[in-house]
Amino acid sequence: MPVDATLPYDDANVFARILRGEIPATIVHEDEYAVAFRDIAPQAPVHILVIPRGAYVSWDDFSARASDAEIAGFVRAVGTVARAAGLVEPGYRLLANVGAAGGQEVPHLHVHLFGGAPLGPMLAQGAARARAR
Predict the structure, then answer these.
(1) One of 29, 47, 110, 112 is an active-site residue; which one?
(2) What per-residue confidence (pLDDT) applies to 133?
(3) What angle do CA 68, 72, 76 make, to 5 degrees?
(4) Strands of 92-95's sheet in order across
(5) Which residue in 2, 19, 102, 103 has the most C-beta neighbors within 10 A?
(6) pLDDT, averaged across the chain
(7) Domains contained in the chain, CATH given
(8) Which is nearest to 28 in space by CA: 11, 54, 51?
């Protein structure tokens, strides 16, 4: 279900529940600012989600309200995870969806790290054609 990124944070969302240990996840990294875990429905050979520990709905919410330390810590965690997964040399895609039109499905900021194979064009051809109209 698409997310309205302008709504307040919902602490019942699946990622908040993972942070609280209520739902299991295959954690690949955690520090004081972020937790990273394997996606349960991977869209690439390597598909890792990185989430901040703080209660932020979206990238917009995070960039507006997070402290400088949280922002730096989260961005560093994303890089740490990509390096640890061996994604830097072959290349990878970093994606953050925001709001309904952006395809966001969970109301907790998360970035997707995709890699392990050539990923193809940035957007599906149908989406590119729709933009051209």
Answers:
(1) 110
(2) 58
(3) 170
(4) 27-30, 34-38, 46-52, 111-115, 92-95
(5) 19
(6) 93
(7) 14-118 (3.30.428.10)
(8) 51
